[in-house]
Amino acid sequence: MWYTGKTRNRNGVAIIVDGNLKDEVVEIKRKSDRIILVKLMIDEETFNIISTYAPQIGLEESTKKAFWEDLEEIVQGVPLGEKLFIGADLNGHVGSTNEGFERVHGGYGYGVKNEDGESIFDFAVAYDLILANTFFKKRESYLITFSSGPNKSQIDFVMTRKVDRAVCKDCKVLPGECLVSQHKLMVVNVGVKWRKQKYRSNKCIKTRWWNFNGGKMALFKDKMLQGDPWRVEGEPNMIWDEMASRIRNTAREVLGESRGRGPPTKETWWWNEEVQQAIKAKKECYKRLHKCRNEDNYKCFRQARKDAKKAVREARGKACEGLYQKLETKDGEKDIYRIAKQRERRTKDLIRIKCIKDEADRVLVKEDEINER
User: Fold this and answer.
1) Where would one find the signal peptide in this protein (predicted)?
2) Torsion of CA 210, 216, 222, 226, to 10 degrees
C-alpha cells in the first residue's frame, strides 16, 4: 500500500496493489494529501492508477481550485500512449441524465447535477475522460456510492480515457460489502492480457560461517588435517587458489549453506490467537450493525471494538517488551542493525529501479525500444 497524507484523520488517500503485482510498480507520485499516482507495467502495457479525494462542499473556492489544478498537472504528466484510471471521491453530483455531456456521461447516473458536478464535467471534457460508472445500466442500489440516513448520492467515480472505454468491462457498487459506514465499495472490471513475468532469481547462497563455533570448529579442524598435505612449492597464486578452494569446500561440508533467501517479513509479528479472535468478533458485530442499525447491535460493536484494541495493545506490549530485553544483550546487536535497515526500507516507495524512460518521460516496455534507448 502507498499512502499520502499530512494530518491524521484529515484527507489522505492510498492505493493498495495485489502482492502479485508489487514487482510491476515502477513509479510513485504524491502531489498532495489528496492525490497519489501509482504506475504499473503489465506485459507491454503501462497503467497509471490515480486515487484522489476532492474538497467537500462548503470549503473555500481557493481550496477547490488548487485541487483541480493539482489533478490536472498529474493527468498532464501521463503520456497518451499509457492507460489512465482515476478512482475518485469527487464530492459532486453529475446527475442521472447526460444531456449536453454525452461524450463524458453514459446516461446511467443518479441524482441531480450540482455546481461541483459541473467542475467534474469540465475536467472530464478537457482531458477526454469518461465517468465509467455511468456507462453501465444498473439498479439504483448499484449506483449509490454514499448514504447517510435518508440521504443518498453518487459522489465516487472511476474515470478513464475515452479511447480505453472498451477495456472497462463493468463498473458497479457492491452495496452489501462492509467497507465504511457511509461510503460503498465500488469496483471496475478491466480486461487486461497479462503474462506473468519470470524474473531472474536474486538468490545469494552463502556458507554458514556464523555457525563456526564449538563442535563445528573442532570438526572443521579435523577435516582440514585429514586431507592431503599442503603444497608449499610452486607458483604462489596456484598455491593460494588450492588452499582457498579447500577451505571453502570443507566449510560448505561442515557448516552447510544458506538457501539464498532472507527471513520472511511479517509486519504483524506480534499477532496471536487472542488478537485473531478479537478481530474476528469485531468484524461479525460490524456486519450485524451494517444489516440492522439498532441500539443493541451498536453497543455490541462498540464493546467488540474496544476489546479488539485492548487485545492488540496487550499483544504488542508483550512482544515489544521481549524484543527490548533481547536488544540489551550481546546477541541483540545484530537485531538493532536489522531493525534499522527495515525502517529505512519502509521509507522508500521502490527498492530498486525497474524501468527505462524515453525523452518524453514515457516508460518503455518493448524490448526493441529499450535496446535502442
Assistant:
1) none
2) -70
- CB within 8 Å of 3: residues ≥ 6 apart: 12, 13, 14, 36
Burial 211-224 (b: 16+ CB within 10 A, else e): eeeeeeeeebeeee
Q: Which residues are bridge partners to 190 per DSSP?
A: 168
Instruction: Give the C-alpha separation, 48 to 87, whole Å.
Output: 11
Asked if residue 362 has pLDDT above 90, the reply is no
Assign 153 to helix, strand or coil. Answer: strand
Cell of 210: 556464523
Does the global pTM surpass 0.90? no
- pLDDT digit string, tens, across residues 181-227: 678 888 999 887 766 555 445 567 788 888 888 888 888 888 888 87
Q: What does the chain come to in residues?
A: 373
Nearest residue to 185 (alpha-carbon basis) of 171, 170, 164, 166:
171
d(CA 256, CA 208): 6
Check residue 369 and give its pLDDT: 66
> Grid cell 447517510 — which residue?
148
pLDDT, one tens digit per residue, over 333-351 is 777 777 777 777 767 776 5
Domains and CATH numbers, the chain: 2-190 (3.60.10.10), 209-255 (no CATH), 273-328 (no CATH)
Q: How far apart are CA 169 and CA 363, in angstroms?
A: 26
